[in-house]
Design brief:
By secondary structure, the chain is mainly alpha-helical. Helix content is 71%, strand content 0%.
Length: 249
């Protein structure tokens, strides 16, 4: 329970630390439970969309639902995507990439990356039937976080001084990996039962994950926290592309 609380504290704005004592050791395995936090963020996003869809057209209901997730997570992952776009877009070598990513200011590449991400996911969601949108939101949030959490298993941390939050994530044990995978994959079941062809959509984020791993290894020799957040959003958008393709086949 303390480890789940640590994950919710790290990856959302829910102040569980105000109501319970969370030992620092719990934070080192928080990434194992990252997909589990997707059950909450995806569930709230889908639930709000469902409620708003009774009083609003689909598009504004989607926009407000996405805004609710931004408020719930504090735009943590979007900050990572902007930093990755700025760093990888403007940096010439490892040192300059990491320096740019650490800068709190957002640049042109970061703005363009966020605009493209939000335009893509909103337009793709809007192209789906309303009943399927709810299942897709519930499914892709945890599964994309499962994909992104594999960075700690596939890469080393890129900064020699360590993470700025002083938390290091060791590679998962076999048991932790399967628990991580279950948290990411169980929410896929309702989607696959409702639209069986969408099972192929999981291949899209898996392929993009390995592409990103190769890119990160080549550019900065590992991953950072920003890389994790960016990978989650990129995998989410890629899986949504896959869902739309398979639904329309």
């Amino acid at each position: 329970m303390k480890r789940i609380a640590a994950a919710l504290t790290l990856f959302t704005r829910i102040p569980l630390w105000k109501w319970m004592e969370i030992p620092s050791s719990s934070y080192t395995s928080a990434v194992v439970f990252w997909p589990f936090t997707g059950w909450l963020t995806g569930g709230i996003t889908a639930g709000l969309f469902f409620g708003l869809s009774f009083i609003l057209p689909t598009l504004p209901a989607l926009v407000l639902a996405v805004i609710s997730r931004l408020l719930l997570t504090g735009a943590l992952h979007e900050d990572g995507l902007a930093d990755l776009c700025d760093g990888f877009g403007g940096g010439r070598d490892k040192e300059s990439v990491l320096r740019i990513m650490k800068d709190s200011h957002i640049g042109t590449y970061g703005v363009i990356g966020l605009v493209c991400y939000f335009l893509l996911i909103i337009s793709l969601f809007d192209s789906l039937p309303s009943h399927l949108i709810i299942l897709v939101i519930i499914a892709i949030d945890p599964f994309s976080k499962f994909c992104a959490s594999q960075l700690v298993n596939l890469l080393s941390y890129a900064r020699p001084e360590g993470a700025k939050n002083k938390i290091s994530y060791p590679r998962m044990s076999v048991f932790q990996f399967f628990m991580n995978m279950l948290f990411g994959c169980i929410p896929l079941i309702p989607l696959f039962l409702s639209a069986p062809g969408t099972f192929l959509s999981v291949l899209f984020p898996v392929f993009i994950l390995f592409g990103l791993v190769h890119l990160m290894q080549r550019r900065i020799g590992g991953y950072t926290g920003d890389c994790c957040g960016a990978t989650f959003l990129i995998c989410e958008a890629t899986m949504l592309v896959g869902v739309c393709i398979t639904v329309n086949l």
